[in-house]
Amino acid sequence: MFTKSFASSGRQRAGHAARLACVAVGLVVGGAARVAWAADAWPPAVRAALTQAGLTDDALSAVVVPLGAAGERLPPRLSVQAERPMQAASVMKLFTTYAALDRLGPAWTWQTPVELGGPVVRGVLRGPLVIHGQGDPTLVIERWWLLLKRVRELGVQDIHGDIVLDQGAFRVPTEQAGDFDGEPLKPYNVLPRALVVNFQSVTLRVRPEPGARWARVSAQPSLAGVRWPTRVKLQGAACGDWRAGLQLDLTQPARPALRGGYAAACGEREWELAWPDDAAYGPRVVEALWRELGGRLHGHVIERSEQPEIARGEAAFEFASPPLHAVVRDINKFSNNLMARQLFLTLGLSQGEGSLERAREVVSTWAKERAGCDASELSLDNGSGLSRNERVSAGCLARLLQAAWAGPAMPELLASLPVAGVDGTAQRRTAEAVGPAAGRAHIKTGSLKDVAAVAGVVQAASGRRYAVVGLINHPSINSNGGAARAVLDALLRWSAEDTAR
Q1: Are 435 and 495 in contact (CB under 8 A)?
Q2: 157: Cβ–Cβ under 8 A, 6 or more apart, which residues?
């Protein structure tokens, strides 16, 4: 657990009173009085939120800086502890997504080669069907249906061989899905793989039957060889923690069991689950889907990371993903960890090796070139922020946003960020909380135990746009996360209220 204290240094404490003395200064601009703040002191609204949250000054680092043209370095409106590396949670996705847009281009696509390992004779493929994963994170069940339909359109009805899911393009360390926080069934913990299938997840749907004592249970997608219970007993209790009430037992993944009940008051509900038997998930889904399409299979569906006995042949076709800008939008709007990790490894693969080591090297080098972020203020791990090893300074993030604003991929990156009070992970930030920033702030948010963060672009009342970064690291956030978010909301609100031109 991350419980490091953030006590301020003696030098910081000594300078605190002096900075406070500079906080409010009356100015007259265009005949209207306004208030300016020293760039290294907290505005009153932010300080009040810090006090209300019970957070010390050193728990927060922040930068608010005007955005300008390429190469234009405008003085910051606020800059406190800007060089200090801190955990930023999902805000780290900005490095992965902007690096991809900048290096690969918004229209770039993943190409998944599909190879017929033998001749097709009167509808029979005499050999394996090999699908070579290249990291495409968009292969949900509907797109797998399209891919296998393409195989059928090649005249393949019966496969006298195996369907081989080639996972060899990525070299990832051995780990378990629950290693991060002990929650292996949470979809955000699904681990990356070269050929991902439907986010390696199942949607369990429970629907009470009118007038019956049972609720109907179904699961999608179909998994070959897995038999789900079709119903669960209804209970008359109020709808509380209905997931716990079901008492789902996945001890034997091929025979899931529901040992509890379901409150009729809950109505119809869905539960997204990461499948516990990760290696078997893809083969089960692909086999079930192939048979649903009317295909026959005389072998098995298998995963392999290395296939020395199967020579790589010419692909019958390559299955293209949606364009990168659409994938980046899904990653940032909904903070999809698996998609971010797939993209991070893809950046390494684009430079010869689909490994974390190569991806870290590629993105770190790029960040230093684009934003001047060196190893003292940026440390990358898996590119998603779901890590205790990733660190970044507010200053580095602000420079990244400045570079993005002046770069050709700015429209795609900005459009991918959630809009405060409107959509994505920022939808619940109300107008009351963020004031004029609602609808005018494109922000990436992040949260973990001990961590709350925000970074993005805010359009102020003056019409000027600012890069805004706020990072909070403090042990109390786990029990008082709402108060920490209120501090970041106060920062967004203060940034948007600026009327100076």
Answers
A1: no
A2: 123, 124, 294, 295, 296
Both tokens of residue 459?
A: 């359009």
Residue 439 falls within a domain, yes or no?
yes
Q: What is the dihedral of CA 150, 152, 154, 157, to 10 degrees?
A: 160
Nearest CA among 449, 463, 451, 455 for reference residue 498: 463
**27-60 pLDDT, tens per residue?**
332 223 334 557 888 999 999 999 999 999 999 9
Distance of CA 349 to the CA centre of its chain: 19
Count of H-run helices and E-run strands, the chain: 13, 27
Total domains in the fold of the chain: 2
What 8-state DSSP symbol labels residue 69? S
Q: Is the same domain home to 298 and 150?
A: yes
Residues written for the chain: 501
Kindly give the interhelix angle for 356-371 and 93-104, rounded to the nearest 10 degrees.
80
The tokens of 133 are what? Answer: 């994963």
Quick count: other Cβ atoms within 10 Å of Cβ 230? 11
Q: Are 300 and 366 in the same domain?
A: no
Do 292 and 336 lie in one domain? The reply is no
Question: Do residues 438 and 308 share a domain?
Answer: no
CATH number at residue 450: 3.40.710.10
The encoded tokens of residue 161 equal 């061989």
What is the SS3 string spanning 146-183? HHHHHHHHCCCCEECCCEEEECCCEECCCCCCCCCCCC
DSSP string, 206-238: EEEPTTSSEEEEEEES--TT----SEEEEE-S-
Are 311 and 357 in a shared domain?
no
Dump strand ranges (E) for 402-463: 441-448, 451-459
User: Could you report the per-residue pLDDT of 95-141, keeping only the tens digit for each?
Assistant: 999 999 999 999 999 999 999 999 999 999 999 999 999 999 999 99
Q: What is the pLDDT of residues 356-391, one digit of tens each?
A: 999 999 999 999 999 999 999 999 999 999 999 999
Neighbours of 236 (CB within 10 A): 8
Non-local (6+) Cβ contacts of 148 within 8 A are 286, 289, 290, 293, 295
* Cis amide bond preceding 256, omega within 30: no
Three-state DSSP class for residue 352: coil
C-alpha span between 326 and 271 (Å, rounded) = 25
- DSSP collapsed to 3 states, 37-60: CCCCCCCHHHHHHHHHHCCCHHHE
Q: Could you tell me if 106 and 412 are in contact, meaning their C-beta atoms sit under 8 angstroms apart?
A: yes
> Could you report how far apart the first and last alpha carbons of the chain are, in Å?
45
pTM above 0.85, yes or no: yes
Question: 56 near 350, Cβ under 8 Å?
Answer: no
**Residues of the domain holding 280:** 110-320
Count the alpha carbons within 13 Å of 478 in the hemisphere toward its beta carbon. 6
